[in-house]
């Protein structure tokens, strides 16, 4: 055995790629989870103020004498809107903000994948977002006497998880795209906020938009996920307002999950190659 081979044999082996990935996810999720406990005022602004916005739509249905199921549709839409806001501001904009703060170089030099870093950010932010969504659903139900009639818990859980996987896969894809566009990412983020609220049917059944518009809006995973969950939570009312069947929407969500995650991985790898070749990460150097 040569000296080089002998040295290589004696060199201790490092952790596997899987272990590094898991550790990276935990490392990036930890600060966001712990941060909830350190700044209590954030919980007030992140939960109570969005709850007030949702309550305005519920009070409108109350004033018109609409059945409680209509109010439940609004509550569910308001709860799911929290996840879209988290994807826009805490996922899609994250790499751009880290670049502005000087932390992006650390991510690029870290011996782990960028997918692991973004996955950790997603899981960490998911905790606070889930709390916000739960407060909207439970608080609204207590205030307005809304009852949820879940027809199938396995399907409800499956649709919810598929919606989140596809949505955060989209967030990972947008994070690399927004980073490349530089300062224009802020304007794009603001521009995407309200149109998605409308197109995804957060405050009304998406079927009201028509088949063509609803199909186009289905590119945002929450459109399909919200419609499917409404069918499972309010089956009687949604018999006349559903867009597609629950099984069809679950299959489409699974397909969107695969597409968005694969596209995000390709985009992040391309971004990393660009940074090494050109010495910068934006198209115009801004």
What do these coordinates show?
With 286 residues, the chain is mostly helical. The chain has one domain. Helix content is 79%, strand content 0%. It is built from 13 helices and no strands. Helix 8 runs parallel beside helix 13 and helix 11 packs antiparallel against helix 13.
Mean residue pLDDT? 80
Instruction: Give the termini separation.
Output: 53 Å
Decide which structural class fits the backbone: mainly alpha
* Total strands: 0
Task: List low-confidence stretches.
Answer: none
Oligomer state equals single chain
In percent, how helical is the residue content? over 70%
What percentage of the residues does DSSP assign to strands (E)? under 5%
Structural shape: globular
Keywords, separated by commas or semicolons:
mainly alpha; 286 residues
Task: Summarize the SSE layout with pairings.
Layout (H helix, E strand, L loop, with lengths): L2 H8 L6 H22 L1 H24 L4 H25 L1 H8 L2 H6 L4 H31 L8 H29 L2 H16 L11 H7 L3 H13 L1 H4 L7 H33 L8
Q: Nutshell version of this structure?
A:
By secondary structure, the protein is mainly alpha-helical. 79% of the residues lie in helices and 0% in strands.
